[in-house]
């Protein structure tokens, strides 16, 4: 059974840090690009960061220099280190796994973990 289980969300003051984790089960983790998305009620889901299978990382402009995505293929886990958090980072953060259609395709989502940045 495929599972993506996020953890690490919570309430933090502006300027603080959080580390999100996403543990994957039930598929070949190393074959999938791993993504973090976030969504605020009433808005579209936003891609925050991606780490490709070979380690290439990309970020949304709004989080560059503050967030760092990483993956551990031995632990089947992807992380999002979030520093210098701002109130506008408040959202439900989702973990996503996606594989290119050229190598079989497939996409999975976690249930989300809430991040709230507030004084």
**Approximate shape:** globular
- How many β-strands, per DSSP? 11
H and E string:
EEEEEEEEEEE
Q: Which sheet architecture does the biggest sheet show?
A: 7 strands, mixed
Portion in helices: under 10%
Query: What oligomeric state do these chains adopt?
Result: single chain
Question: Strand percentage, roughly?
Answer: over 45%
Structural class by sheet pairing and helices: mainly beta
Mean pLDDT: 97
Low confidence ranges: none
Tell me the number of helical segments per DSSP (H or I, 4 or more residues long): 0
Distance between the termini: 40 Å
Q: Cα-atom Rg, whole angstroms?
A: 14 Å
Describe it for me?
This protein has 119 residues and is mainly β. The chain has no helices and eleven strands. It has strands at 3-7, 10-12, 18-25, 33-39, 46-51, 57-59, 67-72, 77-82, 91-98, 107-109, 113-117. Strands 2, 4, 5, 6, 9, 10 and 11 form a seven-stranded mixed sheet that branches. Strand 5 (46-51) and strand 6 (57-59) form a beta hairpin. The mean pLDDT is 97.
Write the layout of secondary structure elements.
Blueprint: E1 3-7, E2 10-12, E3 18-25, E4 33-39, E5 46-51, E6 57-59, E7 67-72, E8 77-82, E9 91-98, E10 107-109, E11 113-117
Parallel strand pairs: 2-11
Antiparallel strand pairs: 1-3, 3-8, 4-5, 4-9, 5-6, 7-8, 9-10, 9-11
Give short descriptive properties of this protein.
119 residues, mainly beta, 4-stranded antiparallel β-sheet, 0% helix, globular
């Amino acid at each position: 059974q495929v599972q993506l289980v996020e953890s690490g969300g919570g309430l933090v003051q502006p300027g603080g840090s959080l580390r999100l984790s996403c543990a994957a089960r039930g598929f070949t983790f190393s074959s999938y690009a791993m993504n973090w998305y976030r969504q605020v009620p009433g808005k579209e889901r936003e891609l925050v960061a991606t780490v490709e299978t070979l380690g290439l990382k990309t970020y949304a402009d709004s989080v560059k220099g503050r967030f760092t995505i990483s993956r551990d293929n031995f632990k089947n886990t992807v992380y999002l280190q979030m520093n210098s958090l701002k109130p506008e980072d408040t959202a439900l953060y989702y973990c996503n796994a996606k594989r290119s259609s050229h190598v079989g395709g497939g996409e999975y989502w976690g249930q989300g973990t809430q991040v709230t940045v507030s004084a």
